[in-house]
Write a structure and sequence with these properties.
The complex is a heterodimer of chains A (113) and B (123). Helix content of chain A is 0%, strand content 51%. Chain A is built from no helices and 13 strands. Chain A is globular, with a radius of gyration of 13 Å. The termini of chain A are far apart. By secondary structure, chain B is mainly beta. Chain B is globular, with a radius of gyration of 14 Å. Classes of the chains: A mainly beta (113), B mainly beta (123). Chains A and B meet through strand 7 and strand 12 of A and strand 9 and strand 10 of B.
Chain lengths: 113, 123
């Protein structure tokens, strides 16, 4: 199984400041034939299901604000919120869909300072 | 807009079978570009993929649960279902159904999720 490890486990950031969440996979999730990273990011607010933010590591899902960005390749990935808003308080998960079983990171809890 | 809704008992006794159904609306479960998956989340913990099914009947399960899991589809009702046998307290979780967008053969990410349903395994 591909192990997904996120850092940090929790993060406290001031409103308007940048938030950065890291995700590392135990093996590459880059598929060389199409040069795509099989990595998704989800946002989960309290009492709600996860919501897809990015797929292919950096392709923003429709409706996701552009203050969110995804980057990285191979085994190292980053989710960045350029200017934190109150509604961004949530737990963020990365997930690999390179191979089954699909696996998720343990989650990063983002709070406001 | 695609919507998914989980249904089933909220309480299951240990050693019994957990059964849930996901009803899809706003889209067809027979869509060739979709897998239909189950993901669970124990209270206060992270996400675990259980398995996914295509309307063709092709299924993929998490090996950690494979011996106890069956996922099936009923296209006539636009539903798919999960059964998990020999339930224990460790199976207590919120169970989500989700649509998997196929990107390559069977590989998919989950772009639409149900609200989830809490299943507690307890006597």
């Amino acid at each position: 199984d591909i192990v997904m490890t996120q850092s940090p486990d929790s993060l406290t950031v001031s409103l308007g400041e940048r938030a950065t969440i890291n995700c590392k996979s135990s093996q590459s999730v880059l598929y060389y034939s199409n040069n795509k990273n099989y990595l998704a990011w989800y946002q989960q607010k309290p009492g709600q299901p996860p919501k897809l933010l990015f797929y292919w590591a950096s392709t923003r899902e429709s409706g996701v604000p552009d203050r969110f960005s995804g980057s990285g390749s191979g085994t190292d990935f980053t989710l960045t919120i350029s200017s934190l808003q109150a509604e961004d308080v949530a737990i963020y998960y990365c997930q690999q869909y390179f191979s089954t079983p699909y696996t998720f990171g343990q989650g990063t809890k983002l709070e406001i300072k | 807009q695609l919507q998914l809704q989980e249904s089933g008992p909220g309480l299951v006794k240990p050693s019994e079978t957990l059964s849930l159904t996901c009803t899809v609306s706003g889209g067809s479960i027979s869509s060739s570009d979709s897998y239909w998956g189950w993901i669970r989340q124990p209270p206060g913990k992270g996400l675990e993929w259980i398995g996914s099914i295509h309307n063709s009947g092709s299924t993929y399960y998490n090996p950690s649960l494979k011996s106890r899991v069956t996922i099936s589809v009923d296209a006539s009702k636009n539903q798919f279902s999960l059964t998990l046998s020999s339930a224990t307290a460790a199976d207590t979780a919120v169970y989500y159904c989700a649509r998997g967008m196929i990107v390559l053969v069977r590989l998919h990410y989950f772009d639409s999720w149900g609200q989830g349903t809490l299943v507690t395994v307890s006597s």
